[in-house]
Write a structure and sequence with these properties.
Blueprint lengths: L7 H50 L2 H12 L4 H5 L2 H17 L3 E7 L5 E6 L12 E2 L3 H11 L5 E2 L3 E3 L3 E11 L5 E10 H52 L13 H43 L6 E2 L4 E5 L4 H19 L1 H4 L2 H4 L5 E5 L3
Antiparallel strand pairs: 1-2, 1-7, 2-3, 4-6, 5-6, 6-7, 8-9, 9-10
Helix pairs in contact: 1-6, 6-7
């Protein structure tokens, strides 16, 4: 037996489901990319604002004193205990703590390495003491030099620094009492902080992807219900009509095209019913004509019939009805002749329509 084919519901699901998956993945990737860019841009703005604010809050006279002490390698513990250091570093520590930054400090180009640290808000093992030196990546070193030369605030990409790991840095200028840029205020955020925000963004992207999948699946279900169900109903009605049941198709809600097809199918059922009735009437009429022709050919011509009591049946014409009546009268005359008892009452048995009875004596 030949297969009836794949149901339209299955075809719709096979067609739309891959599109839904691709759309959800693409939407999730797009959202994640945009969120990640937004997160990096947000951190960049945060670092720029923090470094600029820090550079503006540092007292120029105090920082000149501390910078000179750092350059001559004065005892760090003694200098960091001085009021010039304490009154500048305490606000930096509050800023770093409130904003969730990894490092907040001031530095100047020079020394045996790339930079010399002056103020550092970090406490504990990661604290950079006054006068300690550090090496920078070529890109960061060049960016700091542009800032020192009066350029814009430097913002680094996420880069690896040997002692500090993966960082994103911003550096704003610090001026001395004469207004000359002599150092930079640096604000750093560790990649782990960015990763936490990125993971939140990834989770949000996953939620958006799941939500889009659920919404798309619901829309697909509505499409299947709105389109496939009426079409399958029309298919069943078409098969029923083709099998001989001429009842009109049931009225179902569906798209305009499906409604039109249902109306056309109803008109077809009505037309088939009318055609069958006409064909049946034509067949009956043809049968009557054919049977009449055969009877006229088989029956002898209608001629008068004489009865034993002298009555005569005479036909009015020579049509089929007259010939049938002639045959009946002839049979009745034979039975009357064979049965004398019937001769007395035969006139009550004779139904004369296409002829007439007369007496021979008349």
């Amino acid at each position: 037996m030949r297969s009836d084919g794949t149901p339209i519901k299955t075809l719709l699901w096979r067609t739309i489901t891959p599109a839904i998956l691709v759309l959800a993945v693409a939407l999730g990737a797009l959202v994640y990319s945009r969120l990640y860019e937004t997160i990096l841009d947000g951190f960049s703005r945060k670092l720029i604002a923090t470094s600029a604010l820090t550079g503006a809050l540092i007292d120029p006279a105090d920082h000149d004193f501390l910078l000179q002490a750092a350059m001559v390698k004065a005892p760090a513990d003694a200098v960091e205990a001085m009021p010039q250091y304490r009154r500048n570093v305490e606000p930096m520590r509050r800023i770093r703590r409130e904003l969730g930054l990894t490092y907040l400090y001031s530095q100047a180009l020079g020394g045996l390495k790339d930079v010399v640290y002056v103020l550092d808000s970090t406490v504990g093992d990661e604290h950079s003491t006054l006068g300690s030196e550090d090496e920078l990546t070529p890109e960061t070193r060049a960016g700091l030099r542009r800032t020192m030369d009066g350029g814009p605030i430097y913002v680094s990409p996420i880069e690896f620094q040997e002692h500090w790991g993966l960082l994103k840095t911003a550096a704003a200028p610090i001026r001395d009492r004469a207004g000359k840029i002599v150092a930079t205020a640096g604000a750093d955020v560790n990649i782990s902080v960015i990763e936490v925000a990125t993971q939140n963004a990834l989770f949000a992207s996953a939620l958006i992807g799941v939500a889009s999948l659920a919404a798309s699946a619901f829309v697909t279900f509505l499409i299947v219900r709105w389109v496939a169900a009426p079409i399958e109903g029309l298919k069943a009605d078409a098969l029923r009509i083709a099998a001989g049941d001429r009842a009109p198709p049931a009225r179902l809600k569906g798209p305009r095209e499906v409604s039109r097809l249902r109306d056309d199918l109803g008109e077809l059922a009505t037309h088939l019913t009318t055609a069958m009735r006409q064909a049946w009437s034509d067949t009956l009429a043809a049968d009557r004509v054919r049977n009449s022709a055969r009877l006229e050919t088989a029956l002898p011509p209608a001629v008068p019939v004489n009865f034993p009591d002298g009555a005569v049946w005479s036909p009015l014409d020579d049509g089929l009805e007259a010939r049938l009546e002639h045959r009946a009268m002839a049979d009745l005359a034979r039975r009357v002749a064979a049965d004398p008892a019937l001769a007395k009452a035969w006139r009550g048995l004779a139904l004369v329509v296409h002829g007439e009875l007369t007496d021979a004596s008349a």
